[in-house]
Amino acid sequence: MNPQKHNNLLTRSNVYNIFAISAFILSIFIIYHHSNSSICNSPLNEVVASSSSVSPSPPTTINQLIFTIAGSVKTWRNRRLYIREWWRPNVTRGYIFFDKHPTAEILPWTYDSLPSYRVSENTTKLNVYPRHARPHIIRIVRTILETFREGDNDVRWYILGDDDTIFFVDNLVDLLGRYDHTKYVYIGGISECVKSSFDVSFEMAYGGAGFALSYPLVEALVANLDRCIETYPHYFFGDQILSACVADLGVPLTPVKGFHQIDLMNDISGFLSAHPQTPMISLHHLDVTSPIFPTMDRHKSVKHLMTAAKVDQPRFLQQTVCYHKQKNWTVSIAWGYSTYIYEQFIPRSILRRPLETFTPWSSTGQPPHYMFNTRLVTNSSCETPHVFFFHSVTRLSNSFSGGDNNNSATYEIMMTYVRYKPRQLPPCSSDHSADYISKIRVYSPATKLNFVENRGECCDVLNVDGKNTAEVRIRACKKTEIITV
Q1: How many domains, in total, are found in the chain?
Q2: What is the predicted pLDDT for the residue at 405?
Q3: What parts of the sequence cross the membrane (predicted)?
């Protein structure tokens, strides 16, 4: 072959190779660029992008709760007074289920102040009925199924309770707003009494205290409810069966201390005056305990209590402790219920334990009786408090004019507490008696108490000299402030 021709062929071959490689690289670039562009504009990518920018669900509102109340025609005339104190017509939603048709004694029904009523389905036809240990509780268990079948719209939570359960609805809404209603969630409180918990369960939400079930959990629960009832014919209580069914669905109890079964007897003022540092959610058994205000009957006591609670539910019953150094006094406030004055300094860590003014619902005779620590009631002048109960509430406004002539105002709540009765004990020390105090005014901010910060409030004793009235102001604690002398 001619050398010149051979060189020309090599040169041409090199050009072809370079061209081919360049074309290959260019095609790779085009494919990659097109691929990225397609992915960015693909429906899948749009879904991913949109899902990452989806805002969280709006806050839970009171209208997204459905109450399921187990009632009885026999007890209704007395217990309807309790429901009227917390039910909000045209706001709260739910039903009360009776064991039979209401009698003329409780009709006509006052829909403007009470929930709608339903008559429970006949459960005697169920196969499990004749062999159940307490067949009448099957009706109570199935109230959640019957409520779900009502088909209410925009429901996030179902709340179960008894006809003598008192709910603090604003606090309940705030509480449930902290949890994901799209998950399986079971929220409630256990018994205060050791024996009750031992006999029934330490891991069950007690129905008298009320408990909350998320919508998805109720959906799964009602699909299996009758089978669950048949699985547990030896269980004595409706909430016990429901708890077992929820457990069999793989869902644990989320315990919250603000739900109160009140498995306590007699005077529960000591318990209420040292409420746990958590929002008050419910009360129960108030038609069994002594009246919570000793100068009133049971119904008037509840009405009076709710007068305070309706002013400021988050702060209601929250314990605040402060000291008066000159008098050597300790002041313990259960907001909206009581104020105690002790004639000596007592740490808050001690005062958060309730005075044992009550007795257990049931007992083996040997302690421990309660699921919490208590302080024994004594006749010691230094350990026995002067007791003052809630009397009245006033909203105060202090108007003032700013530098730019814009009128504005600050607001606070004034709670007045009056002495229950003379303590009838000598002073703890000769010059530190609080016997002359007959009234206490407690001032608190009109702003909402924030439990997310996980810290209580502080207070200052303003005035105790030369009068029969003491004054205390509740305020936010300073950053490193400790509640001590």
Answers
A1: 3
A2: 45
A3: 15-32
